[in-house]
Amino acid sequence: MIGSVVAVFSFEWKRALTLPRKAWWLVLAAFPVFIAGLVRFTAVNHENGPEGLWRHLSTWLLFALVPMLVAMLGTLLWTTPAISSELERRSWVYLAVRPHGATAVLLGKYLAAVTWVIPPALVGLTIAVPLTGTGDSWRVWRALSGLVFLSCPAYAAIYLLLGVIFPRRAMVVAVAYTLVFELVVSFIPAVINKMTVQYRLRALAANWCDLNVFNTRESGAMALIGTEPPWHHIVTLVCLTFVLVAAAVVVLRAREFSSSADSDT
Amino acid sequence: MIELKNVTKLYGKVIGVNDFTLTLEPGAYGLLGPNGSGKSTLLNLITGQLRPTLGTVRILGRSPRNNARLFRQLGYCPGGEGMYSDVTGYDWVRYLQRLHGMTVHEADSAAKSSLALVGMEAAMNRPISSYSRGMRQRTKLAQAIAHNPEFLILDEPFNGLDPIGRHELTNVLRDWIGQGKSLLFASHLLHEIESITHSFLLICGGRLLASGTAEEVHTMMVGLPNEIELKCSDPYCLASRLMGERVADSVRIVEGLLTVATQQPQRLYEQLPVWLAESNVKVTEMRSADESLQALFNSLMKMHRGEL
Description:
The complex is a heterodimer of chains A (265) and B (308). Chain A has 265 residues and is an all-alpha fold. Chain A has one domain. Helices cover 72% and strands 0% of the residues of chain A. Chain A has eleven helices and no strands. Chain A has helices at 2-15, 19-42, 53-79, 84-88, 92-96, 101-132, 137-165, 170-182, 197-208, 222-225, 230-254. In chain A, helix 9 runs antiparallel to helix 11 (230-254). The relative contact order of chain A is 0.13. With 308 residues, chain B is α/β, with parallel strands linked by helices. Chain B folds into two domains: 2-219, 3-Layer(aba) Sandwich (Rossmann fold); 224-305, Alpha-Beta Plaits. Chains A and B meet through helix 1, helix 5 and helix 6 of A and strand 2, helix 1, helix 2 and helix 3 of B.
């Protein structure tokens, strides 16, 4: 079983070394650098603002760009179609009639996607952090890198599960989920936002980077980052990732994936 | 080896397989049926890709769903293409063998030897996208046999193959059977199956119509009217003669085409030249509709419905 997962992982990585995928890798790495550079270029007189404001704004910007957008976009593109792409090209049956083949393909592709997305996120972060001139670049880089290692597996697990549950509309459902839950619901100051990955990452970013913009009970914005300690968020994210991946495996094994109904019955 | 009990598979309101009961001992079998007859659904049920709506499927005594032990003994060549076009045939076959739990070295060796066996040694390092349809069929067969399974299931494996390719792969499959291994070979062409095995399963409309050897199936048909079509210079005269000789059960003439239904085809074939000569009737075309596979299915379906 582990050997099969490793086989899928290495095969997928070999297939990922094509020119279009390398180009996507570069786009993902360049995206935060480009945006951070533009912002820095526009805000040339940022030193004149209130003390600490630029640091807070630029760190939140980096958070939004790397552990959020790059991680979401990268994992959405590579994890969501893990099964649907095999069904569309009708290669699924070749894989599914191998011992533990379906599970190995799912897990191997998941690991390949996560390890494919983390490097461009880190490269982009490494270049973008000093570009913003926050003053404590090392601390911000360290915190946001840690978030990358939590966000990529978590988002990949969500998209993996959605792709298994809705193989025929996987991308549409994944984009809808991202827009509705991770970008809207996560900002609703109510208990429901605690169900999103975004809430956990945001709380960790605020804590690790000492971003106290919302960190006043009087502001009424505490619900956006919560009061839980960092370990609580980390454990929640790690457990959530494992539970989602396990759920994807269970759903995959229970489902019927056959194109017979579409072709020759 | 294969045991299906009252298996029905529904796709919504569409019936894929209908109340299918079958027990097969180890051996080589041809699964014969026209397009859309339910062959692929049956194979998907046997390989555990589908779950029966009703009934039970047992392969080697166990359910095939998510059955890793069964998959180790099973080789499957699907009907569709479905291979990764951006990798080489060698990489594809090797990858699938790795999924069988082989080490890199074992998978290398198995992929090379199976591709060589199906005549793909020279082209195995080319991308699959550059392969002809026949080469893809050979590669599909190679991935199915590379891990040396005990039981091989092939869905229309000769599609797109040229006559030489068919001959070569026929020999490969005959050797396979000769090693005492089991084979289930699905096709809609009788002669393809006859070249491999003489044991048939005839399926149509999702139902098992008949099973046995070709002789056994034909024996079932004895006593059923055969239809023979004749184009001749004087169909009315010939029809009259055939009725007079009491060899025809019924005759029908439509636009000069005489259709004769007979339960004595042998006698008719033997005597027809004499009767034609005596009646001075010239035949320009003669065809036994019942020789076609579809006619055989039609007759079996009528038998099944109690119309014959």
